[in-house]
Amino acid sequence: MSNLIKGATGDWEVVIGMEVHAQVLSNAKLFSGAATAFGAEPNSQVSLVDAGFPGMLPVINDYCVEQAVKTGLGLKAKINLRSVFDRKNYFYADLPNGYQISQFKDPIVGEGRLILDMPDGSTREIGITRLHLEQDAGKSMHDQHPNLTFVDLNRAGVALMEIVSEPDLRSSEEAALYLTKLRTVLRYLGTCDGNMEEGSMRADVNVSVRRPGDEYGTRCEIKNVNSIRFVRAAVEYEARRQIDIIEDGGTIKQETRLFDSGKGVTRSMRSKEEAHDYRYFPDPDLLPLELDAAWVEKLKGTLPELPDEKKARLVADYGIKPYDASVLVAEREPADFFEAVAKGRDSKLAASWIMGDYFAMLNRLGKSVADSPISAAALGELIDLIADNTISGRLAKEVFEAMVESGKAPGVIVEEKGLRQVTDTGAIEAAIDDVLAKNQDKVAEYKSGKDKLFGFFVGQVMKATQGKANPAAVNDILKAKLQA
Amino acid sequence: MTSELNRLTLAAAKEGLAAREFSAVELTKALVEAMDAGRVLNAYVTETPEAALAQAAEADARIAKGEARPLEGLPIGVKDLFCTKGVLTTAASHILDGFKPTYESTVTANLWRDGAVMLGKLNMDEFAMGGSNETSYYGPVVNPWRRTGDNRPLVPGGSSGGSAAAVAADLCLAATGTDTGGSIRQPAAFTGIVGIKPTYGRCSRFGIVAFASSLDQAGPMTKTVRDAALLLQSMAGHDPKDSTSVPTPVPDYSAGLTGDLRGRKIGVPKEYRVDGMPAEIEKWWAQGMEWLRDAGAEIVDVSLPHTKYALPAYYIVAPAEASSNLARYDGVRFGLRVPGKDLTEMYENTRGEGFGKEVRRRILIGTYVLSAGYYDAYYTRAQKLRRLISNDFEKAFGTVDAILAPATPSAAFASGEVADPIAMYLNDVFTVTANLAGLPAMSVPAGLSAEGLPLGLQVIGKAFDEPMVLNVGYALERAANFTTKPETWWRA
């Protein structure tokens, strides 16, 4: 699969690295006991520590540390038993202390990896450089008053994990897949809810272009992209912008840019020269964070089965296609649903039903697996009715729709509607004889070579039996009679 | 008799209250009266006499019921760096105008828990940056001591200059101070009182306006070593709200005050014999060695080879941390706000007007040493030196139980006499080492200079060995028998 972008002077390769800020799923902030619920009244979840009052001191929230280590383990990363919190100094109205507590030189998590599931069923490994813990800032609101800015500190001090990738991504598609997969892993781990619309996940996207095989080009960082769709659009726009500049004889300036989602363009925010000097230094209010190796090992034992392992197991145990498995494991619930349906049944049939009619139904109703009108047991029963020839696959679709509407069990619907499949060959034979007798002209045409009419006869027979005839039996008997 | 109650030591007042010789209200009234009479010293930024008398009345009730707590009814002053609930807390800075915390520092909360009475908030150098109390927004504090035959006002030292002057002039029985580079020990030495900077982590920093977080430590400033032990007993302790506070149990600090140093080795570091040190500083140091020998100790020469790097290292680390710690004073949420046409201008106006010259100087130094391209040359090297200085002490304490050194290179100087900031920084030459190494160190008055001003000796101990430091200090105190008080010229 080629990811190259065509330019006026030849092909270009885009190189992307991501810095994802994922909000740690925790009831309290990183260094204070204040709450973290989304959507609370402005400044209702702010402690004196968060507001940077004189004499206030940060105290690390152990649970946030645990969540970060769990995430590191989930990314198959090195856990650093000693890490250090640093101060990143800059002035802004929504940064009460005038510094953000972050980790600079010694992050809590080192190198790891994330596996992308490509649409062709292959996989691609993307390197994780590091993960570190840091505080979020508050929110400046410039639209509440004609000439004043309001500040909401509810987010100030909320724990974030900054997850940095290697520049291993090569297309907007891969960037989108990376973010999607990262979100999947975080959700499996329960360390971040991944709700991008609530700001729980945001990405800084580093983009550069080069001729295939060349050294990396100069990169631009697109800040705070808050949806997967926007990541895709931002990369596409930015890569094209850079190619156009270079092809017109210009050079790329290293800078920070913003993505304007309304116009679909990136815009310069500040140049390298204007970049802050953050004057990082170890926060003297906090001791280095020391972790116990045995504790980390114990935590490892509590991790749930992660998507990659689950996918491998579904392929091995149920014989489904790798790509289908990757779709099913994209979230935990569909994967669990699949297993509940497939266990002890024709797993390929189960996969095809779930990924076909079942997902289509959820989409149509705007529902998720959790609030689906059809339970795994009900869908399983429906598949059982197909397997034991009680109904045909075609009738099953009708039963399925009835299940969605009425919530009744498939067996009940089959009985009520009298949809039980006719497998009695005598009855089928009689119906076929009747059809053939009524259409002797067509029988003659068929025999003179118009093979296509076979479908017509099948249709007539099914119509005569209100669709209840076993299609395989109809095929066999009809074939025999026409050849006679 | 009431008029003399303010001159009591903490321990004597405690005994007097227990023996019902006077009430806590009588005692507090005497101090309030002294505070009024001593206003010319400018030791207090905020006086809280009504609250003090109310606390005293409660103390009397408890004493009557036989439920007296360790510091019941003892009136003390609090350095204005400690946040006190509902009481103006300024750090002696314009930028904290009108700031009344809704919370109490852990150290002061511990004192009130143990029954102490607060007389008010004591003046200091702005944000604890200074060695003469001349940088206070609320004006300089005047040292109650004067040179013999010379009425020019002298500085009380700093930054805990208000605390030192108030204790020396009997405007409180004792006071809290903080010490980042000598801010308890130097003013104690300049005013003839006792001051101890405990081991880093011994007292909680929660609720103390931060100057340099890795160096700041609260401690008592008192009339005697016994009083220091008594006050520290209540101030010290682990605090989960301060991650750098240490859970080591607090020993009984008064129990070990015997003055008996038989079998003990006291180190004398040759590197503290600095160039140009006045002869009388040398003389009192030698006298201190004699006294400790008399108490049974063996005096041993030790070497602290990196001492000469302590001052430069300190004046990199402390401003670096301060530049970051003081970033929160931005006019957005509390204290002074000087408006501007945009956010940046508001910052500039607020911080430009709100901070005094010395604070601005240190913020600039700190910002500079942390900047890209300079960080390694300054901050990283200073941290390395800090480690080497700690190692020096560790090695010395392999052979000795405590170290004896001068507290300051001179006696108190006159206001305006030391105008060059570098010359002012040199005042900290003997004290910054203990902060850099996080060790407990105490200043004890030794005697008078030729000009009739008090001079102090310094005892430095192993980490968390405050009992040893206190006992060596006690031996010095007993031998020195320094009972001279400044003349109460301010009452005239």
Describe the structure.
The complex is a heterodimer of chains A (484) and B (492). With 484 residues, chain A is of the alpha+beta class. Chain A has three domains: 5-299, no CATH class; 302-417, no CATH class; 425-483, Arc Repressor Mutant, subunit A (Orthogonal Bundle), CATH 1.10.10.410. In chain A, 39% of the residues lie in helices and 19% in strands. Chain A contains 15 helices and 16 strands. Chain A has helices at 62-74, 172-189, 228-247, 293-301, 307-318, 322-328, 332-342, 347-365, 376-387, 393-406, 410-417, 425-438, 440-447, 453-464, 471-483, and strands spanning 5-7, 10-23, 82-83, 86-89, 99-102, 112-117, 123-135, 139-141, 150-152, 159-165, 201-210, 220-225, 255-260, 265-271, 281-282, 289-290. In chain A, strands 1, 2, 6, 7, 10, 11, 12, 13 and 14 form a nine-stranded mixed sheet that branches. A three-stranded antiparallel sheet of chain A has the order 5-4-15, with no helix packed on it. In chain A, a hairpin with a 2-residue loop joins strand 1 (5-7) and strand 2. The radius of gyration of chain A is 30 Å and the shape is elongated. In chain B, 36% of the residues lie in helices and 13% in strands. Chain B is built from 15 helices and eleven strands. The mean pLDDT of chain B is 97. In chain B, strands 1-3-2-4-6-5-10-11-9-7-8 form an eleven-stranded mixed sheet, sandwiched between helices. Chain B is globular and about 65 Å long. Chain B has helices at residues 10-18, 24-37, 49-64, 106-113, 161-168, 185-191, 225-235, 279-294, 310-325, 343-354, 357-369, 376-396, 421-426, 432-437, 466-480; strands at 44-47, 75-79, 117-122, 174-179, 194-197, 217-222, 265-269, 298-302, 402-406, 441-448, 454-461. Chain B is of the alpha/beta class. Chain B has a domain at 2-262 and 474-491: Amidase signature (AS) enzymes. The relative contact order of chain B is 0.14. The interface between A and B is large, with 30 and 43 residues.
